[in-house]
Amino acid sequence: MAARLVKRCTCLLREAALLAPAVSPVGRLRLARVAHKTLTSSATSPSSHFPGSLSELVEREQVFTPYPERQEVDHLIEKAARPEELLDLLGGGHCLHQNHAALILIRLSRLLSEKPGDKASLVRDARFQQLLHLVNSQITTVWHGTLVKLLRSLYALALPSGSKELQSVEQEVRWRMRRLKYKHLAFLAESSTTYMQERESRELLAELLMHLERRWAEIEDGRTVVAMMMKVGHLSESLMNRLEDKHVLNRAQSTTVPHLCNMLLAFARLNFRPEREDQFFSLVREKLGSELAGLDPALQVDVVWALCVLQQVREAELRAVLRPEFHTQFLGGESPKDQSIFQKLLHINATAQLEHPEYTSPLLPASALIPRLSALDKKVTPLQKELQETLKGLLGSSDRGSFMVATQYGWVLDAEVLLDADSQFLPLRDFVAPHLTPPSGSQPLPPGAKRLAFLRWEFPNFNSRSKDLLGRFVLARRHVLAAGFLVVDVPYYEWLELKSEWQKGAYLKDKIRKAVAEELAK
């Protein structure tokens, strides 16, 4: 028995000595511990097999080996200005360690972000396929930070969903999820959740959200809070509540104005109401205060617009952005950014008119309220087309309804109809329409008449995994109601269940009856 034990000890120490140079000092200490444990267990358990345990430890230890010193190839990767320079590194006789192939792919993604048209030709390049194969073979030894960047880069390179290499990286991320630092999880959430949703990587996204929710207490900075709220807040209300408690209120004094503005915009985008709403908005008033006027003009508009969405705006804030000397700089802008800001100014102006009756001036000039062609120049969706066709069939005459009605409030109605006291359609053009610019018609509405607005809600208009509208569309609905309309909501998830033309017509009739009945019941 003793002879067998000595023989086993000799073999064990010989194998450990051969493996020790490849393992870090910490790893050598762990090897010694495993050796001691194995000897002990060998004496009591004849079924133990040391080679399996030792090789498993070494394989695990290699993941945590110190990062190699910078080599010439690292500089070549960073300085590369063309994809060809990166692909040539594969056959250039360079010594590539386990992270280099991943770093090359990450750099390729950055270069091609400036030339998206070159992605298709790159994917067909044999050297690119060789690079993918190399990364796949080394994936278990790629460092955590490089791994999450690699996944983002493969998404950006638009690899097909069935790509073996992409699936391998996704699986590796899932396996390592518990060991990733929160900053790595936050990076994935900030850079890759949109890709995960588009590619239907549901399992990976679900695990990412689970870890973000469970480990939220590991967040150390305000920027991460804002990024989480903006990127995945709509996917997890519980995470939003925890972030609010941890960083918005408990660390109120250290919250900077830019971070607070971004949080406010995140809340408005999702139409999210904090659990401690009064305390949160008291903090907003305290922090913004006189600093609102000192913010960048575009950010000022964003902040006031967010307060409008959340129904927290005050007259002083409305006045700050609606005064002529402020809003004039955005009236003639042609860039997408200027047009977006101007659109928000229209919504702010509508809030002042419709939701603050005590507010009188200043307001945007009448000339600024005339709808621009860009408001109507959008691609027609299948739901929009079917809704118009079905409604035209119900109306029977073209003068009984209007479609794609651009209002002075910055919102476009899918359709507008008038009903008399007996719920019969009336010709629109004969009656006054104060919501248009300039107002049309001359006759006042007959007693008991009702103006109906049809609003379709597509999939992107909703919070993910819910039937709650995003803040922008909640504001639109509020404004249309305040302008005197009865709203007929047509959400995509209800319309998709209708198979025949008869069902669609009956659906709209029922919606109209319900809208009228709710109004009469008030």
UniProtKB/TrEMBL annotation:
Keyword Transit peptide assigned: yes
Segments traversing the membrane: none
Biological processes per GO annotation: mitochondrial RNA processing; regulation of mitochondrial mRNA stability
The RAP domain, residue ranges: 452-510
Pfam families named among the record's database cross-references: FAST_1, FAST_2, RAP
Compartmental location: Mitochondrion matrix
PANTHER family hit by this protein: FAST KINASE DOMAIN-CONTAINING PROTEIN 4, FAST LEU-RICH DOMAIN-CONTAINING
Described purpose of this protein according to its UniProt entry: Plays a role in processing of mitochondrial RNA precursors and in stabilization of a subset of mature mitochondrial RNA species, such as MT-CO1, MT-CO2, MT-CYB, MT-CO3, MT-ND3, MT-ND5 and MT-ATP8/6. May play a role in cell cycle progression.
Record protein name field: FAST kinase domain-containing protein 4
Source lineage: Eukaryota, Metazoa, Chordata, Craniata, Vertebrata
Gene field: TBRG4
